[in-house]
Amino acid sequence: MTQATQQEMQQYLQAIRPLTAQQREAARQAAIGLIKQRNGDRPTRAQFMREHGRAWDVLDLLAVIIFLAALAVSSVHIFQHMAHIVGPVELVAGGIEISSGAWVALHQIGYLALSESAMILFIVMARTTRVKWLMGVFYALSMLSAAFVVVANLSSGIGLFESLLPPLFTIGIGFRLEHIIAQGLKRRRDVDIKYMQAMMHWEHAANDPTQHDDYARAYRNALLEALIDAQSGRGKSERQDAIINAPRQLKQAFVRRELLADRWADFDLEADTLVLPESGKTINTPTDGNGTHAPIAQAVNGHYQDATEADF
C-alpha cells in the first residue's frame, strides 16, 4: 500500500465517527444472538439418518431359507456329536448335582451356540474392528468355530458328501449374513460419529458463542452495521454511503479500528510502575483557553508519577 493510499485511508477513518464502548458491546451481543439463532435447536440422531438402500435383496431371503435348513441338519449332527462325547462321562457326586440328561443337553445347546453363532459373530467383529492384532484374534476364533462345525458333521456317521453339505452351506451363507450385519453396523457407526460431532459443535456454541467458527465474521459484520447506524449530524447520509460503498480494504480498516479500540486496557495490573517512552517528558492535555497545555503526569526518573493539584 503506497503512502498516498495510506493517507487517504487515514482521512476516511478520521471522517467516520467511531463507536462508543456501549455500541461495541451492543454489536457483540447482536453477533452472539445471531450465533445462537444459527446454532438452532439441539441436534437429534434422526437428523443424520440417510435414506440408504436395503442391505439385503430378495435372493437373501432364499439364502436365509437354505441357511435355516442347513442349520437344522447341522444342529442335529452337533447334538449327536456332543452326546457321543459327553454321554459316557461319569458324573462326580458332590456339590451341585446335575442329571446325566441335563449334562448332555447343556453341552449340546452350548456347543451349538458356540459354534454356529460364534462363527458369524467373530467374522463380524473382525470386519468392524480397526485393530490389526484384534482382527487376527477374531478371525482365528471364527475359524475354530467353523472347524468344530465341520468335525461335528463329519462324525455324524452318514456319507462324507452328505455330512459336508450342511456346514459348507451354513459357512458360505454365513459370510453373506455377516456382510449384511457389518453394513448395518457401519451405517450406525457413521451416524453416531456425525451426531456426536454435531452435538459437540452445538454444545460448544451454546456454552460460549464467542468460540463458534462463525462468531468472528458475525461480530465484524455487526460492527460495520453499527458504524453505519452510529453516523449522525451533518453529512450523515454521505458518511453512511461512504461506509457502505467503501472498498474491502477500507471496510476492514473501519472494523479493525473498532476491534483495537479497547486494547489500551490490556496491561498488567501487578506491575509496580508504568514507564513512559522517554524519561523527563510531560504528558499534556489539550490546550486550555489561553493556548497552553495542562500537564497530567510527568516522567520522573523514568517512572510514572500521578499529577497533583499543584501541577495544574
Structural notes for this entry:
The protein has 312 residues and is mainly α. Among the domains are: 58-190, no CATH class; 272-312, no CATH class. It is 63% helix and 6% strand. It has 9 helices and 3 strands; from the N terminus they run αααααααααβββ. It has helices at residues 3-15, 21-39, 58-86, 100-128, 132-154, 160-207, 215-230, 236-244, 248-259; strands spanning 282-287, 293-300, 303-306. A 3-stranded antiparallel beta sheet has the order 1-2-3, with no helix packed on it. A hairpin with a 2-residue loop joins strand 2 and strand 3 (303-306). The chain starts with a helix and ends in a 6-residue tail after the last strand.
Number of helical stretches of at least 4 residues: 9
Radius of gyration: 40 Å
Biggest sheet statistics? 3 strands, antiparallel
* Beta-strand content bin: 5-15%
Overall spatial form:
rod-shaped
Give the rounded overall mean pLDDT.
77
Structural class of the secondary structure composition?
mainly alpha
Distance between the termini: 44 Å
Order of helices and strands: HHHHHHHHHEEE
State the helicity in percent bands.
55-70%
Residue runs with pLDDT of under 50 for 5 or more positions: 279-312
Q: How many individual β-strands?
A: 3
With strands numbered from the N-terminus, the spatial order across the biggest sheet is 1-2-3
Can you describe this structure in just a few lines?
It is built from nine helices and three strands.
Describe the SSE topology.
Blueprint: H1 3-15, H2 21-39, H3 58-86, H4 100-128, H5 132-154, H6 160-207, H7 215-230, H8 236-244, H9 248-259, E1 282-287, E2 293-300, E3 303-306
Antiparallel strand pairs: 1-2, 2-3
Helix pairs in contact: 2-7, 3-4, 3-5, 3-6, 4-5, 4-6, 5-6, 7-8, 7-9
